Amino acid sequence: MKSNWQCVKTSCDTVSPKAQMIGDVLRLSLILEASCAPAPGLVDIDSPGAHPDMDYETLTRSAVAIGPSLRTMADAGVHHTGRPCELLEKIRAIGLEAEARMYQATSGVNTHKGAVFSLGLVAASAGHLFARGGRLDPLGIAEGVKAMASGIVARDLIGLNQSGVDLDLLSHGERIYMKYGLTGARGEAEQGFPTVINHGLPALEKALKKGSSLNDAMVHSLISIMANLDDTCVVHRSSVEILEQVVKPRARTALAKGGMMTEDGRRSILLMDEEFASLGISPGGSGDLLAVTLALHFLSFLT
Q1: Residue-wise pLDDT tens digits, 26-70
Q2: 6-20, 78-92, 125-139, 166-180 — which is least confidently predicted?
Q3: How many CB atoms are located within 10 Å of the residue 298 CB?
Q4: What gap in Å lies between CA 238 and CA 240, rounded to an integer?
């Protein structure tokens, strides 16, 4: 549906030092997510994947353009004193500014709209926690996101079933909810990013502890997310059958073979990369959650 939010002007150069640090970590997470390879179906540093309209340079330009808005979202969290739902409203408004920056940097290509939503919530939660002396541990940030997003599925999606709304006015995520009941990024946020907390982050940290490079650990995390996420980007660009019969099974097979930590697993991931690109399969929701995974991992080092 068309947004009711009006774009607000923000002063990205006057945010607090805490917010600047958080925003910079999130911008780095976006760049790293775009860099890791092979990333089946997604743009990476070696390939555009299933995206003929963008490449690695496009994604890095987008990440840099979004960076100031991520700082502003973190700053909103630093200074917020009201209810969590009121902070969500502030973030959604700032998100329109981030989207405008993105489209200007990419000549109209949607590179990071989903990531702006998810990372905006992370930024605000981290800013709010950090300003009050809390440690930026992943669970603490995720709990803050959960509080901010409480009720978002009911407000944004469930009511669509009774509203008689014109389907042509719905977003891709809203149409997918109407057809399949998948709640997408809103559902993940309202539950505190369970796919990240239970799969993406443990996979990343396990690979790093076993001596994998950061690139390989990121890919391993991405495949773990793909194996478990109801990725609405796949459903939108392909079908729910492709999600359930191709994406998830291929990812689970690769993980069963050891993922990026074994030769067999790596071969399976390379085959996924070729297959997804040729079939136009893009697990963009999984890419967004890899960025969230990286953000939670690196934010935990801030003091």
Answers
A1: 999 999 999 999 999 999 999 999 999 999 999 999 999 999 999
A2: 6-20
A3: 16
A4: 7
User: Sorting pLDDT into bands at 50, 70 and 90, what band is 10?
Assistant: very low
b/e 108-124 (16+ beta carbons within 10 angstroms → b): ebebbbbbbbbbbbbbb
Give the CA distances from residue 179 to residues 160, 167, 170, 227, 232, in Å, rounded to whole numbers and listed in that order.
11, 11, 12, 22, 11
Instruction: Identify whether 48 is preceded by a cis peptide bond (ω within 30 of 0).
Output: no
220 found inside a domain = yes
DSSP secondary-structure letter at 209?
H
Distance of alpha carbon 295 from alpha carbon 301, whole angstroms: 10
Residue 228 maps to a domain:
yes
Structural element, H or E, at residue 145: helix 138-148
Say if 286 falls within a structural domain: yes
Burial zone of 232 (CB within 10 Å; 0-12 exposed, 13-18 middle, 19+ buried): buried
Backbone conformation region of residue 43, classed left if phi is above 0, alpha if psi is from -120 to 50, else beta: beta
Range of the domain at 229: 12-299
Question: How far is the C-alpha of 221 from the C-alpha of 151, rounded, in Å?
Answer: 28
| Number of domains composing the chain | 1
Say if 85 falls within a structural domain: yes
**Distance, CA of 183 to CA of 174 (rounded, Å):** 8
3-state secondary structure of 152: helix
The span from the CA of 113 to the CA of 192, in Å, is 19
Type of residue at 19: A
Q: Which two tokens stand for residue 81?
A: 């004193």
